[in-house]
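Entry 14. Structure prediction run on the chain below.
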Amino acid sequence: MTTRALRLSPKASRLARAGRLWFYADDLTAGDVTPARIVRLQDDGKRDLGLAFTSAGRIAVRRCGAWPLTIAENGSNAGTAGSRDAIVPGREEFFANRLQTALANRGETVRIADAGGRLVHGEADGLPGLIVDRYAEVVVLQVTSAVVEAALDAIVPVLVEATGAAAVIARNDVAARRHESLPADSRLLHGRRVTATTIVEHGLRHEVRPFEGHKTGFYLDQRPARALVKELARGREVLDLFSYQGAFALAALAGGARSAVAVDQSEAALARAEAGAAANQLTGLTTVNANAFDHVRAERDREARYGLVVLDPPAFAKSRREVRGAERGYRDLNRLALRLLAPGGYLLTCSCSHHMRLPQFEEVVRQAAAGLPFPVVLRRRLGAGDDHPAVVTHPESEYLKVLLLQRPES
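Output returned:
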């Protein structure tokens, strides 16, 4: 164990006490962020703020929660004003503790053989820069922290022991790694190479391809929204825009939809949607290989009507600079989708841009509904499932916004 500490400026200290988790190099008044490591973090009065990861990247400090303090040699509590720096745990001890706590909080997701779910969700589990998803016998990691990257040899054995995983895969083909000077790659960390596996969600079988699918292989965060679509779909004609491999469309058909149209630009994803319908013995699926914006305009022009439209586009705002353009995109797309609703029809609309906060997204949707020849009612707000916890003072962790809107019958 070592006794390394960083100290925040007075302004940054106020933000830290209010719950901020990320800080930049100019927020520090003492200590060095290189090399990337686990440190104790202090406020401007030398009061302990718990542990943090450091980085030479854009985000220099990421807080990762409390750790039991030890008693300093002089008998005072370590980490308080005027004392020596508090003790930093060794990396094996730290990661074992954090991972075991996260896994204990996930319950059945760890135990059920064909389950899919998130096992570690970054800051909410005290492990900033680490995402861990489980797809049956496969565990997939996404790492965006240099501290975590350097500790994979301590992390992977804990995950294997807890889950019995046949394969542990790193899906590190994400742009965020550039900020930490980490290479973008996908590689096998443990076990045998598994190119496809199957999970069961709400009674439906979904094939997951961990080396090539979107994100870590599947959109696990939309589990609650898919359950709602299944609940609402009976007797309706459904349009699933930006469908990927058609998980919403399949949920709708399983819920008794008369038909479901899955629209995506990826032929490979649509082929998996068709294979998913066959595997689940579902009929009524049509796939359309098209740009969703073009398709929804064409449907508007032919005055098509649907009982349920699902609008789950990719993130339109990947930085603050892109938010204004994202607002226009969301507004136009939602207005077009709302025009496709039959009386009594529903629109399930989503944003996964963490730079687009919920009040802002709702305002864009209100603007999209303004001027339509019928009212639009907000029926429900949803987010990611319980396995994607959010830190309330860290809005970046609550990235998924889902609104259920309805055009009334009359």
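The two ends are 69 Å apart (CA to CA).
Filed with the rest of this week's runs.
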